[in-house]
Amino acid sequence: MLVNEDKLPNLPLEPLELTLEKYYNSLAPILSHHELSRTQKAIQDTLKFQGPQVHSALKQKNAKFRNHMTQWWADKTYLNVRDSIAVYSNFYGGINYDRPFPGARDYCEAAGLFVYGALKYKHLVDWEMLQPRKLSMIQYKKMFGISRIPGQKIDTLKTCQNPLNIAVLRNNQIFLVPAYDSEGNLFSPATYTQMFRKVVDHTHSKDPYPLAMMTYDARPHWAEFRSRMQSISPQNAQNLDLVDSSVFSVSLSDKSFEDVSELSYDIYMGEATDKWIDKSLHVVFYQDCKGGFQSEHSSAEGIVFKEMIEYANNLAAEGIERGEASEFSIQKLSFEYDEALKAAMKKAEQRVLDECSNQQVKVARLPFGNDFCKGTKIMTADSFVQLSYQLAWYNNFGEVPPTYETAITRAFYDGRTDNVRVCSKETLAMCKLLNSNTDNEQKLEVIKKASDVHTNMTKMVMRGKGIDRPLWAHMCQAEEMGIELPIFKDPAWEKSRRFILSTSNFGNFDTFFGYGAMYPEGIASCYTIQNEASIHGISNFKKEGKLNSSQWAESIDSASKQLANVIHSAHRLPSFS
User: Fold this and answer.
1) Does 195 score more than 80 pLDDT?
2) Rounded to an integer, what distance in angstroms lies between the CA atom of residue 413 and that of residue 436?
3) Average predicted confidence (pLDDT) for the chain
4) Is 158 strand, coil or helix?
5) What is the three-class DSSP state of 363?
6) Residue 27 and residue 43: Cα distance in Å, rounded?
7) Percentage helix, strand, coil, to 5, in the chain?
8) How far apart (Å, rounded) are the C-alpha atoms in residues 89 and 474?
9) How many whole angstroms separate alpha carbon 278 and alpha carbon 294?
10) Which residues does 335 contact at the CB level (< 8 Å), separation at least 6?
11) Backbone phi, then psi, for 3, in 5-degree steps?
12) pTM of the model
């Protein structure tokens, strides 16, 4: 699996003047002439004075570590998040769109079949048996047995090299079930199913203290609570360590959902009492055999978890031999709470409920996919979605928003992601012209131009020649050296990075993914693109959002049809209503 890892090139580091030129060009659609002049002066001063010194130090770091981002990435991007990681760090998704887990007859069996598939996949990862690619695959080693430990100022990651148990949560109670038998082999799916049934049999009533809820709280609160738990009881400390050291965690919910948006909300938030979201992977299964997951983001990107879920799904769909149930034992974890902890948990409950109630989600399946875009021969499906997003925002507010689109940089050593700045002069021109009386031939030309710019930008970023990560790395290096570069004191830097629209393409998969919006007034919109449709997992803050998730889904539906009608008109095809 890792045979190509050491052969991968170092993450590129372009000349600073080239990165700043691309940065300046990206600002045109969101800044005034006066603001652009001020930014130009900041760029000149950066290049004239200490910018080259910082760049030189960064080049030395890149030569030494092969990826100048690695040292800072997890700490500064994820582990220093002090608010709820459910909103500001983790990502979530459905195991299937709106269907039960393949072949499952109840939620214990769904969990049993999934766990069997996930552990088989872990075996492939452990023994490095996944098909090697010319991409960094080290993230696959960071999917299991990892927990995020809360700290007052920054969190840490705790890795168990040989995790042996699975933490199972139900009705505010936590159990450990064995992942392997006494010889280190997988149990049969029937045995895992029986383990979950035994947990259900022992949890008919709720424990009054929902400890898992604390993982949803702000990190300093959770850190203080956890520290006191450990100090008052050695058993507490040991039990917390057992949860941290589990392969992953699973919860079993008695709820059922017909509406996929309601399902999505419960996976993301729900009552926040039965999901241990500090784990690198937490899975939840519902009474109707539907399932979802949350992942702690600092270790790995969503794409590696997507592939694991596909593997487990396909294995189950092909028909797993359930086998016979064998002997096993489960362990209930008991925790001790003093009056101070009980009072702290009560206060945390209100904070967490407020956080949960401020989140809104919508899952929408829209009618354009890969087949439509291939048929038009004008743009990729990803560009079609992104241009629809730009047009949808413009149609509501008369402007194009600073937009984040995740691009993978795994072609390089220890590569993670960078950002495609979708908002451009060309997308703004397209949005203006599509809302004018101009004929469709001219409209088609601006669509093509905006699409070409987006496609080229995406390719450039995936080649390690983006804007945001290189400049962010210069900012981190400058801070380390005690230097303030003019470009980062210019207001345009923060304004251009206030990504009101945060997006990510999870590829071709029949389910939804999501994460929290980056800013209170913003929207997060994740999507998968199938042959005949696209699925959009949308979230927003209720209190300060400019649009709610349902409005955004309607807006992109309308905008995508607006784009499609121009394209169809140019090909003399019927329009979409």
Assistant:
1) yes
2) 47
3) 96
4) strand
5) strand
6) 13
7) 50, 15, 35
8) 23
9) 9
10) 209, 211, 229, 233, 235, 236, 239
11) -60, -25
12) 0.96
